[in-house]
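dumping this here before i forget
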Amino acid sequence: MNALAATDALRIMQALAGLSLAIQTLEFLRLRTALSERGVWAWSVQQGDLAHASEATRAVFGFLSDERVHAAHLLLRLAGAAMLILWGSALPLSLVLLLGTVAILVRWRGAFNGGSDFMTIVVLTGLVIADVGATFGAAETGAKAGLLYVAIQALTSYFVSGAVKLRDADWRTGRALPVFLDGAVHGPLPPAAVLRRPAVAAFCSWGFILWECAAPLALVAPIAALGYCAVALVFHLLVFRFFGLNRFVFAWAAAFPAVVYAAGVPF
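structure:
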């Protein structure tokens, strides 16, 4: 299989990042009532987290959290996501999307949906790196640097997750898996669920551990990267199925073009 060109990988990543951001933004728009002063996440309550920040910082986030300003921000963010999908990015767009995402997450103490927020920041940072290069006449170098940054971060996230499981005796024996799944969005596993069987749970646990720890092997060749990303997609779809975390599917999928590109780069 031929290596994926940096320009092609970057364009695919831009489109997938736009799709991921659009879905996230639509979800935030649906939460507007809950984020209003009549809702459970009213800014008058959440602003207490910035009690020790400077007055200027509190004023900035107070302005951004105003109901009308927040709604306008989300609509602009949705338009920016559409631009990423249709035309790709430029430095002003990628910077606004990155800083806007950080501003939104400050309200959620740094994360609204855990790892998917981290990966969204990673992908947007990669786009900013690529756009900085393009702005200063080094488009190819910027694209390569942005893609490699995203690939390293994505593969590291899988590897670290696997290493943590490997060190945990409950994951090695399979005891952790049914406990973990009992917290799923659809409720505890049925008493007779196959994943409650110790041998099955241990087999699945080791499958996850070995797959995550093997993340660096995705860089051996583009075909290996494609295979790894295909398994990753199935993994994130399973997470969506059990935990309702649809953001994980799209946030990590946006990083896959960078992984495939990195596998074709000679080191």
